[in-house]
Amino acid sequence: MKITSAEVFVGGPGKNYVTLKIMTDAGIYGVGDATLNTRETLPAAYLKDYLIPCLIGMDPRNSEDIWQYFYRGAYFRRGPVTMAAIGAIDMALWDIKGKIAGLPVYQLFGGKSRDGALVYAHATGANLDALLDTIAHYQSKGYKAVRVQCGIPDMPEGGYAIAKKGEDAKHYITDFGLMPDEEIWDSEKYLKYMPIVFERIRERFGADLKILHDVHHRLRPREAAAFGKEIEKYNLFWMEDPTPADDQSALKLIRHHTTVPIAIGEVFNSIWDCKTMIEEEWIDFIRVSATYAGGITHVKRIVELAALHNVRTGFHGAPSHSPISMAAQAHLNAWAPNFGIQEYLVLGTKECGALFPSQHSMENGMFYVSDTPGLGVDFDETEAKRYSFDRRYHPIVRLEDGTMWNY
Ligand code: CS2
Ligand code: MG
Question: Which residues fall within 8 angstroms of residue 199, CB to CB, at 6 or more apart?
């Protein structure tokens, strides 16, 4: 069996999804997602200019060797562009493998460990009252877990340019600026206000709601350790990205001062980025994604390392991931013995469903993987013709005195 051609498409309904389709001489094709949020054209170029020419003629069934060929063969290894491009190829090859076998991909890992996978949604409020209403909205839709983010009083736009846009913010690429929006940040104000937010959430929603919170890399290690200690009593499901991801040992300081569960990993690209923190057991949840961390082959390796150290999964599922990478993660979620939770924010619109037809389903805050052979998600090329690339930027963050900070 041979790969005969492969094509890359960039665009989507309000999104710059990067979709790869690999064709074979057996008439079977596979699909993969390489959407690197706000840098989408780069993995697309990496695929078109460098990887696809080598891919033609390879046997698609040898997904491990193909992964190693592109990883080791790059010389300048890793990094989000390379790993997103390799990741898309890898997803498409697993899709093909499942279709050859006539089995959903999770069966190729060892079958199902659970029926439904717990997911969480984002509740974002420009202020506390708006946040409480948004949480109530998700609870009424059956969600058992919600990530809570709140605008902070006395910071311009509450510290988050996006928070003022409310519940749906960040779902469309157009929520981001034509040039980078600027957020002004003050950790002291944040640290004073967030415990009040958690207090009010517990008062109104009780003890059972699973509350997640994303610090989004904005604290220093000592601040994050003190914050974790202070909010232990609110029993969070996790505190995410307390400090910038570059420094793994920052997690050690936090871990040694608080029992609040720590989640990190959405910007990691390889097992080497998270190896130390997993092996040292400084974290509770690993948040890599199939798109940014080299596809199913590599993420599965990370999940298995994590399982040895009591670290559960909590894959990244921001709206920038297309239904293809979310399907890849759904198959891993169905299988992983150390599954924790899945962030799930795919656009549920008619347009998105038309571009990526699938039988995967969501009910009462649980994701149910489809039994269709392969990844169980398709890509409609005729629909794709309606869309094109629209350049946007993530916001940047500065402290009140102008110092550049972490988004
Ligand atoms: C966030 C993301 O989903 C999350 O946890 O941290 O929304 C993040 O801001 C985006 O994925 C950046 O592209
Ligand atoms: Mg995050």
Answer: 234
Model-level pTM?
0.97
The pLDDT confidence band at residue 260, using thresholds 50, 70 and 90, is very high
Query: Domain spans of the chain?
Result: 3-103, 109-374
Residues in the chain: 407
Ligand 1 atom at minimal distance to the Cα of residue 122: 3
Cβ atoms within 10 Å, residue 212: 24
| Crossing angle of the two packed helices 323-335 and 80-101, in degrees rounded to 10 | 70
> What are the pLDDT digits (tens) for 214-231?
999 999 999 999 999 999
Give the separation between CA 192 and CA 175, rounded to whole angstroms: 28
Q: How far is the CA of 375 from the centre of ligand 2 (A)?
A: 25
Spatial CA neighbour of 198 closest among 182, 215, 181, 183? 215
Pick the CATH number of 3-103 from 3.30.390.10, 3.40.50.1480, 3.40.50.1780, 3.40.1010.10: 3.30.390.10
- Give long-range contacts, CB 8 A cutoff, 24+ apart: 134-139: 134/166, 134/167, 135/201, 135/204, 135/205, 135/209, 136/204, 136/205, 137/167, 138/365, 139/205, 139/209
Average pLDDT over residues 314-341: 97
CATH number, domain 109-374: 3.20.20.120
pLDDT (0 to 100) of residue 165: 64
393 is catalytic: no
pLDDT at 163: 61
Closest atom of ligand 1 to 241 CA is 6
What is the average pLDDT value for the chain, to the nearest integer? 96
Active site residue 17: no
343 lines ligand 1 (CB under 6 A): yes
**Phi/psi-derived region of residue 134, left when phi > 0, alpha when psi is between -120 and 50, beta in every other case:** alpha
Ligand nearest to the CA of residue 318, numbered in listed order = 1
The CA-based dihedral angle spanning residues 105, 107, 111, 116, taken in that order and rounded to the nearest 10 degrees = 40
- Predicted local confidence at residue 174, as pLDDT: 83
